[in-house]
Amino acid sequence: MASDTIYLNGEFMPLEEARVPVLDRGFIFGDGVYEVVPAYSRHPFRLAEHLKRLQNSLDGIRLANPLSDAEWTALTHELIKRNDGDDQSIYYQVTRGPAKRAHEFPLEVKQTVFMMSNPLVTPPQAQIDKGVGCITATDFRWLKCDLKSVSLLGNCLLKQMAVDAGAAEVVMFRDGYLTEASASNVFIVRNGVLLAPPKNHLILPGITYDVVIEIAKANKMPIELREISEHEVRTAEEIWVTSSTKEVLAVTMLDDEPVGEGKPGGTFRRMHALYQDFKQTVMRRAA
Ligand code: PDD
Predict the structure, then answer these.
(1) I want to staple 237 with a disulfide (CB 3.0 to 4.6 A). Which of 11, 13, 213, 260 is the partner?
(2) Are the CB atoms for 48 and 36 separated by under 8 Å?
(3) How far is the CA of 144 from the centre of ligand 1 (A)?
(4) pLDDT digits (tens, 9 = 90+) for 174-189
(5) Is 117 in the pocket of ligand 1 (CB under 6 A)?
(6) Residues 125-285, CATH architecture
């Protein structure tokens, strides 16, 4: 069930009452950006970082931020308060608003601002213990994957390929190199070294990706950010996917081949535990 109370253009209201004009450019062109912010025990996690990424996405599509960071923060807390559940997944969407249909930007823009809350569903213990299966595919998305655009048709088509194959995610390669998954970032472990593709226009700069790197560095785990070939992924000891909702999850089968020993590896188990500790510490400080 989605949230009972949502925020739309200045007002909180029941989800059923929320309406957006059919000419909204978000509907017509997918002309907008979004964020997904996890809240644990009613505290938004890494909110400043999510707001910074939102600003970067807005700048990338040349759309003014309709709210200040202080306003986003206050609205986020209010939305969390008005919805049930201690752990929530907060969704923001900003579009270029309603306008006569024409590809170029309208001269007068009235952004549509939408926020909703969903229950935050993190992976069940069985998935953490056993890992998940993934398939692979060619990354056929556009070349601005660093923007969190609502134009997600490429990601949706790719995710459906995974679902059709009974897999949790699709790990993607572009020109023979690892990019990311349809809704998560990807890490691998080779020779005990944690590897991830560098941040550039080919991947979303994940907030969880940053947390994992921060934790690895703080705990002196060897880590390298560099281009990773398809061969390196297929012969990795471990593969992980990370996102705000999946947190850190081990991939134990790739295209029906076991990854390493076919079970979550030691580096994953260490990182998963450190991630949970990190979360607890941050949340305790926020409380
Ligand atoms: N997706 N890459 C892509 C393509 C994503 O869609 C996401 C997140 C990530 C991980 O980013 P983060 O760690 O900031 O959640 C990487 C969200 C959860 C979504 O679209 O629902």
Answers:
(1) 260
(2) no
(3) 14
(4) 999 999 999 999 999 9
(5) no
(6) Alpha-Beta Barrel (3.20)
Please report the DSSP string for 69-104 in residue order: HHHHHHHHHHHHHHSS-SSEEEEEEEE--B--S-SS
Q: What end-to-end distance do the CA atoms of the chain give, in Å?
A: 27
Query: To which H or E segment does residue 279 belong?
Result: helix 266-286
Domain ranges of the chain: 5-119, 125-285
**Ligand 1 atom showing the smallest separation from residue 91 Cα:** 21
Give the residue, out of 45, 145, 185, with the most ligand 1 atoms within 8 A of its beta carbon, to mutate for a pocket test: 185
Closest-CA residue, ligand 1 atom 6, reads: 183
Which CATH number is 5-119 given?
A: 3.30.470.10
Each residue's pLDDT tens digit, 242-281: 999 999 999 999 999 999 999 999 999 999 999 999 999 9
Whether 149 is in the pocket of ligand 1, judged by its Cβ within 6 Å, is: no
Which residues are identified as catalytic? Answer: 148
Fold matches, 5-119 and 125-285 = no
Q: DSSP assignment, residue 24? A: B
Residue 53 CA to residue 17 CA, distance in Å, equals 29
**121: number of Cβ within 10 Å:** 10
Q: How far apart are CA 195 and CA 274, in angstroms?
A: 17
Ligand 1 atom 1 nearest Cα: 183
> Which tokens go with 108?
């007068």
- Cα–Cα distance measured from residue 13 to residue 115, given in angstroms and rounded to the nearest whole number: 11
Q: Measuring from atom 5 of ligand 1, which residue has the nearest CA?
A: 183
Name the CA radius of gyration of the chain, rounded.
19
The reply to whether ligand 1 has any atom less than 6 angstroms from the CB of 207 is: yes
Ligand 1: distance of its center to the CA of 244 in Å? 7
